[in-house]
Specification:
The chain is an alpha/beta fold. The protein has 9 helices and 11 strands. It has helices at about 15-25, 55-65, 85-110, 145-165, 185-195, 215-225, 245-255, 280-285, 295-310; strands at about 5-10, 30-35, 45-50, 70, 115-120, 165-170, 175, 200-205, 210-215, 235, 260-265.
Length: about 300
């Protein structure tokens, strides 16, 4: 069943913006909400500023436009953003998910159906070095950010089980792309290389990092939006590979021969050590097939950064 009116939270962010862009391009009705909608407003005139916790405005917007699907991209998008204020991060990530789950419940009562997509994270798995990590692996995360995503998944699953909300959680790998402004080692290495500055990282040589291009993430989200009665309700979304940071550095050096990038051995202390995610379930149930290789994605990012700085 194809949803007719879709609410996208976090619509000004890296993933949410491109979700809105794709849906608008398909001619579908999209309602975009975020704390700021300054950028996404160029894509749709149905863009509204909304703070997490403003449930009255959230419900008013949803019922005004006859929402029958919610793509929840809103909230803190990575562990580095909420480290200094974990209480706020939990309030936003867990509270915001509860708000959209309750909205989906009320829409379901009125309309019999509301598809709810929750953007979770690969960090929920914690440190697990084995490859082919499927959706039934234990969730071993101990830090605040991934714990907020585990809590979000639990809320979504409970609303599905007890209140018939048509919910799916997507465990998304490390997203990169031109619009990412938060900490990103790919952008860091590229920006320094283009500006002729050497860069040394005290980690990364041999350390795996499961990047996935934003285009592939958006494709996975849209497939999950329209899939009919999947047999499971949690999916890994990644590129299906687990390259190391030094492999990415090598691609950058090939593209920018003057790049002076050096890496020490070892893990990134702010990241999990995680084996390759299995995307077999997403392939089989959703028809998901990642299309952007790391090499192609890095080349796109290099060009985007050049364009930003008129290089």
């Amino acid at each position: 069943m194809v949803s007719k009116s879709i609410l996208v939270t976090g619509a000004n962010g890296l993933v949410g913006y491109d979700v809105v862009k794709r849906l608008v391009g398909q001619g579908r009705q999209v309602i975009a909400v975020d704390r700021s909608v300054s950028q996404v407003r160029v894509l749709t005139d149905r863009a509204f500023e909304l703070e997490i916790g403003d449930i009255h405005k959230l419900h008013e917007i949803a019922f005004r436009y006859g929402i029958d699907a919610i793509i929840h991209c809103g909230g803190f998008s990575g562990p580095s953003l909420g480290r200094d204020n974990p209480a706020l991060m939990f309030n936003v990530n867990v509270g915001g998910t509860l708000d959209v789950a309750e909205l989906a419940r009320q829409i379901t009562i009125r309309s019999d159906r509301c598809r709810l997509l929750f953007c979770s994270s690969l960090t929920v798995y914690g440190n697990q070095a084995a490859d082919d990590i499927t959706e039934d692996f234990p969730l071993l995360a101990k830090q605040c950010y991934p714990s907020s995503k585990i809590a979000g998944e639990a809320i979504v699953s409970a609303y599905a089980e007890e209140h018939n909300v048509d919910a799916i959680s997507l465990r998304i790998a490390g997203v990169y792309g031109p619009r990412r402004k938060t900490s990103c080692v790919l952008r860091l290495m590229i920006s320094n290389a283009l500006e002729g500055r050497p860069i040394h990282l005290p980690y990364g040589n041999g350390f795996p990092r499961q990047w996935v291009h934003v285009d592939d993430v958006v494709e996975g989200i849209l497939l999950a939006l329209d899939v009919n009665q999947p047999s499971i309700r949690k999916f890994n979304i990644s590129a299906g590979v687990n390259p190391t940071i030094d492999e990415a550095a090598s691609i950058i050096r090939e593209a920018i021969p003057s790049a002076d990038i050096s890496l020490d051995e070892g893990a990134d202390p702010d990241d999990v050590t995680l084996g390759r995610l299995s995307i077999d379930a997403a392939r089989q149930e959703l028809g998901f097939a990642p299309a952007v290789s790391l090499r192609e994605g890095v080349m796109r990012l290099i060009q985007a950064i050049k364009d930003e700085h008129n290089l």
